[in-house]
Amino acid sequence: MDDIANIVILTGAGISAESGLATFRGPDGLWEGHHVEDVCTPEALARNPALVHRFYDERRAKLHEVEPNPAHQALAALDAQWPGELLIVTQNVDDLHERAGARRLIHMHGELRSALCAACGRAAPWPDPLPPSTKCTGCGQPSLRPDIVFFGEMPYEMEAIDHALRRADLFVSIGTSGAVYPAAGFVQTARHAGARTLELNLEPSAGSFYFEESRIGPASQLVPALV
Ligand code: BV8
Predict the structure, then answer these.
(1) What CATH number matches the domain at 1-21+67-109+155-227, 2.30.30.60, 3.50.50.60, 3.40.50.1220, 3.10.120.10?
(2) Which sequence positions are flagged as catalytic?
(3) pLDDT digit of tens for each residue in the chain (227 aa)?
(4) Residue ranges at the known binding site for substrate
(5) Measuring from atom 56 of ligand 1, which residue has the nearest CA?
(6) Where is the signal peptide (predicted)?
(7) What is the 3-state composition of the chain as percent helix, strand, coil, each rounded to the nearest 5?
């Protein structure tokens, strides 16, 4: 990695699988038990808020039962010692990257541990438990929702992500099926900017074609071997 200065790392549900968190599209994946349009769209939240809250409450409760795995720990160690620019962009809403110690981190699809006020847009730590009457500490409205980027909503910090991708010398994708945009398009942005591209995944993804190199295997083995 001697000619590499700036690194962007994209992670998906696969990096947390070995910690015990379900992925979306694999066997007994989250989308097996729920239709996306019933739990992960603004319309679903308006139509059946109790179902959407239950879907995210169940996943938030699971966070107390799991720990970061060697893949999260390896990325946090790389983040701590890498002298150049480094950005971990996660599609995941769990807190395993930060619990492993990662600092240069963006949650582009939101976070289970955060609540968003649908009235004023203010985010705050999730008030466990969340009785329906819980009011926003900013505007006082009882309009808290999961701080999750639903389908059809703009992911967070896209400008900062795009800037990092255009400056990257190396783009690494870990544990994602490449099924969801705009994240699935990041490899193309990085390639156009001249970055080397590497995919680490349990199986070829929808975007494998765009990567110079794909390594197949579990993240807990591939990531420590990389860093
Ligand atoms: C938007 C919420 C626009 C959090 C999620 C083209 C461009 C832009 C948008 C679109 C486009 N085409 C279509 C769209 C719309 C849509 C989209 O992409 N649809 C898809 C289905 C075609 N995108 C959007 O709506 C996005 N918004 O574009 O807004 C806009 C513009 C202006 C103004 C307003 C709006 C929003 C997308 C975010 C949606 N939210 N989730 C949550 O509930 O968790 S997406 C959901 O899928 C999760 O966030 C998840 O992160 C994401 C991707 O899934 P993966 O992480 O990849 O997980 P998956 O299970 O699929 O795969 C796991 C992989 O790991 C597998 O490959 C497996 O083999 C591997 N694996 C398993 N175990 C291991 C492993 N690998 C290594 N080791 C292991 N042990």
Answers:
(1) 3.40.50.1220
(2) 109
(3) 678 999 999 999 999 999 999 998 877 788 777 788 889 999 999 999 999 999 999 999 999 999 999 999 999 999 999 999 999 999 999 999 999 999 999 999 999 999 999 999 999 888 776 666 788 989 999 889 999 999 999 999 999 999 999 999 999 999 999 999 999 999 999 999 999 999 999 999 999 999 999 999 999 999 999 98
(4) 56, 59
(5) 12
(6) none
(7) 35, 20, 45
Tell the residue nearest (CA) to atom 53 of ligand 1.
Answer: 180
Residue 29 near ligand 1, beta carbon < 6 Å = yes
**Which residue has tokens 């591939």?**
222
Task: Please report the atom of ligand 1 found closest to the CA of residue 181.
Answer: 18
- State if pTM tops 0.90: yes
Q: Which CATH superfamily is domain 22-65+115-148 in?
A: SIR2/SIRT2 'Small Domain' (3.30.1600.10)
Sorted by where each begins, the domain ranges of the chain are 1-21+67-109+155-227, 22-65+115-148
CB 30 within 8 A of CB 62: no
CA distance 13 to 204: 15
CB 193 within 8 A of CB 166: yes
ipTM of the complex: 0.95
Known binding-site residues equal 12-31, 56, 59, 91-94, 117, 120, 136, 139, 175-177, 201-203, 219
Name the nearest CA neighbour of 29 among 41, 45, 46, 16: 16
